[in-house]
Amino acid sequence: MASPSTAVPWIPPVLYTAVLAGGIYHAAVSGGPAHLARVAGFVAGLALLLALEVFERRCRKPSSPVRGEAVLLAVRLLLFTAVAALDGSGVSRALFVLVPFTAYLAFGRRAGVLCGAGCVALLVVGYTLWVPRWWVRAEYVSDLLMFGLALALAGSMAAVAVREQQARARLEGVLAELEDSHEQLAAYALRVAELSTADERNRVAREIHDSLGHHLTAVAIQLEKAEAFRELDPPASAKAVSDARWSAGRALTEVRESVSALRDARPFSLTRALADLVRHFGDDRMTVTLQVTGDEAGYGAEPLTALYRAAQEALTNAQRHGRATRIDVTAAYGEVAARLVVADNGRGFAAVPTDRPGGTGFGIRGMRERVELLGGRVDIDGQPTPREAGGAVVTVTVTVPRCPIPVGSAG
Description:
- This protein is of the alpha+beta class.
- Among the domains are: about 5-130; about 270-410, Histidine kinase-like ATPase, C-terminal domain (Heat Shock Protein 90, 2-Layer Sandwich), CATH 3.30.565.10.
- The protein has helices spanning about 5, 10-30, 35-60, 65-85, 100-105, 110-130, 140-230, 235-260, 270-280, 300-320, 360-375, and strands at about 285-295, 325-335, 335-345, 375-380, 395-400.
- A 5-stranded mixed sheet has the order 1-2-3-5-4, covered by helices on one side.
- Helix 10 (about 300-320) links the parallel strand 1 and strand 2 (about 325-335).
- Helix 4 (about 65-85) runs antiparallel to helix 5 and helix 10 packs antiparallel against helix 11.
- The longest helix has about 90 residues, at about 140-230.
- The relative contact order is 0.06.
């Protein structure tokens, strides 16, 4: 709780000053040398009360124990009694208003009410002992009523002061929590920036592998083919060089598109990109077909780009590692999700090199990461079977939702 010196610091000094003025004025008009000693004691008592206020304001700790509050209240009560006994004007009775006021602030509402009732009872007992039939004398009844009214006003002021201090304490607590929250948010923002940087590095790595890596691989394959068929089949060698030139040009175009996308997003058509990719991937040794159903309108660039990168990776693996002679690419746009299926009759994913024991190649992992970040999934059936069986031994199925759902937000 609080004390009057901290909750409402101006009330006690103002009251002491008013009582001092009233007492000195009464002593001056009544006159007589016999009053000097009482006036001196009266003034000394009020000076002690003021000194007590100054001491409490400067030396009292905010978390003083209850015993210390009780001692201060008892000292005040003794000084109030002494000053009232030395004051012939009767104005000093107003000091007792501070008793329930102080008790309310220091110990709570119940203590304030009890002290107020005690002060009223003490005044009634005093009137009964020293003023015969006081209850029929208007001035004493009026004094009692005014004293009770003053006690009620003092209690109301104490309640307001307590609520104001409680609100201030709550506000300070809220401000402290806000400062802690601000520090936590700053730490979270720093962490998010670090994670965003790491995510961007991973994204750029996937883009480099899926775009430049694919085209550079295609260029290498076509140049090897051109060199192998240079003497045996000049037309096939010339076509391989042409395809290599197209792959190099396409790589440069995709780099420019990626840089341009950072400034101004351009619409991406998966159907057109797949048709262009399939047309330049097939040759006289490998047949690549494309079947598209549905409409890609309504799909964002991210899911469509993820399917395109998956198609690049699957086609590159089938050509370079699977030694496939036929690849079937199917794209289906549904109401809630799009699906890409790449099936070939090659040697299966057992022929794909890995960068760690028991793991998959970087391209496969990058494909999975890209798709899973959108809430999709990648299914690979890569069990090797004899090519003579006639069926596709590798089937890559990639599904992405129409509206990307970040991993971890579902459920």
